[in-house]
Amino acid sequence: HIRGQTGVPRTALSSTEPGSDNADVSVRRETWDIWNAHEWREQIDTLLDNDGEVSGDELVLHVREQVAREHGIHVDPDTWRDAVGWWCQQNEVHEDTVQHLMTIVGRILRYEQRFRADGVLGEDSYVRSMLAWHYGRAVTMARWGLSARYCDRPTAERMILRAGELCRENYASWVEFSAGYILGRVLHFDSEEFGEWYDSIVTVHRILADDPASPWQTLSFDIEPV
Questions:
Q1: CB of 16 closer than 8 Å to CB of 7
Q2: I need a surface site. Which of 39, 71, 180, 216 has the fewest CB within 10 A?
Q3: Whole-model pTM above 0.85?
């Protein structure tokens, strides 16, 4: 099994029996600052809100993808920065925010360069969206909600299935999904240190991509569960 940070197999729905007051439940309450079922539901709904507020990270990726689709071109760094600048001008964005978005563009470009060197991305590929990071955390949140007794099993299953639907809507393959998830994770935690937060998830990506017995090799990405 591929295990998460808590040591629980990714394929397991719940790490504990519902209602168990174990260390995992306590740590996650403090990490997410979630202490009741209402707060849990608000958080998982936000993670699964495909039309909600867009972060700066996702915004600049969306701008690049839009340029690529409209013009049918590979978007080089200068063209991407120009497109972000044009978007900011059209939307009367404050200069401080413009600089923040340009900083994000630079961070993403550096991560993508490393992704290519480490086999996460192909030579001419880039990350289209990092919504995978939110959907992956929603699955973890569903599993934890069941353990913490914030929801019942059918509710947790519905949340996980919804995450799967959104993944299929936004990605075309396991590898593409994984690249989006990894980018979201490292932008959130790694601060361009390329340390444990980076190395651990890239190792998982390689195992899933290369192992003939991995779900990426045995399960089609676009098939809906029965």
A1: no
A2: 71
A3: yes
